[in-house]
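ugh ok so i messed up the first submission bc i forgot one of the chains. this is the corrected input, ALL of the components this time, i swear. 472 residues overall. if the numbers dont match what u have on ur side tell me asap before i send this to the collaborators (the ones from the other lab, u know who)
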Amino acid sequence: MATVLDIRNITYQVEKQTILNDINWQIEEGSLITVTGPSGSGKSTLMRIIANLQPYSSGEIIYQGKSLDEYDPIKYRQQVSYAFQQPDLFGQTVEDNLRFPYMARNQSFDQNRAYDVLQSVDLSKDYLTRSIDNLSGGEKQRVALIRNIIIMPKVLILDEVTTGLDDVTKTAVRNLIKQVNQSGVTVLQVTHDDAEIKNSDMLVTVANEKLTQNKEE
Amino acid sequence: MSHQLVANNSSVILSFILVLISLYIGWKEKLGVDKEIVIAVVRAIIQLTIVGYVLKYVFKINNWMLTAAIMLFIIFNAAYNAKQRSNKLPQAMWISLLAIFTGTGVSIFVVILTGSIKFVPMQIVPITGMMAGQSMVAVGLCYRNMNSYFKDRREQVMEKLSLGATPLLASKDIIRDSIKTGIQPTIDSAKTLGLVSLPGMMSGLIFAGVDPVLAIKYQIMVSFMLLSNTSLAAIIACYCAYKKYYNSRDQLITD
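and heres the new structure output, hopefully the right one now
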């Protein structure tokens, strides 16, 4: 399989403290990789660096054969999408949130696609017009997640998106992640959940400033 | 009985009693503002005395270049003060200067075109002071609010960026709310004109014995000017300032 992302010698320091030191990681296209490690080890930082949401001190990121520096940062983030652990919903309704990725790309909103993605996380069509204030925590998390995939990215980065969800919602989200991955999207998921670790093709651990790769058995 | 204005040296000195009242309150309530009040009073006396003599000279000379220079001086000072509220925002001085210059300049240019005022120092200098002062407050408020919005809504902005938004789209709500808070005081004071306060220009004209109806006409015009002035200054300041929260990779800058 081709390498979609090549992380080369990435180091991240803040105020003389090294968070990540000389990280090298080749990510294969279409893989489902779990990133784990102790809390505060820099997993989220590394994911945000890969998503071009925060700078790094040194090193290089190659995406589809080209250095990240050569990409328009906006276009890059439209292809490498990052889903947050505790997301905020915008505007008034679910529709406002699902319209946003279209607005960002100057495309017209595809309502049928919105219905499809809602149903993929067990939310009925009428959720589209619901006020975000009337959603439960699990529903909010699912709406936030489908914002990232309503226009399918090439790489989807999930930062502990199932943390705090009930078992039913977790299963819906896991199934969606599996479906997304099977459609060819590379998925990097930060999680401590055993079931999600078992689902993945590879497990990597971020600890003590370093990243180690272990093939999942 | 004469209604002519009398502000001789002894009446000014007697009015100093009012400063003593505020100093007493500050001391009694342990507000820790005694030093600041004294500095403010001394500055006010020195600055206004100098300005009084300068204006007397400028009005007498009535030269358009000198009038323009005074305008620029006022705008520069307003920009400098607005910049102080920017929390070390890069290029805040240039942004403030552009915002206040445009807001003040456009408003004054339009009223000159209407023929309501003439480009003479006696009219231009006070009106520039009013406009630049108000846009200084608006721009300062915009900076302060924008800074706190970018702190409070940092995650939301990053989420929007991660969904493929440009920094402009990701910051749109912050820009809108900052502009709104910048111009809100001007809107509020326009709403209460005549009910709560008789504003500076109108009071000045009435003090000088001008017919209150004519004074009101001028005040209405000034209120219109203030609205356009603060709106323009706030919009320019916010649309220039938000970019400074991002680096060249369109990432939010960490404090």
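quick check: Residues 25 and 81 of chain B are 28 Å apart (CA to CA). that seems consistent at least. The mean pLDDT of chain B is 90.
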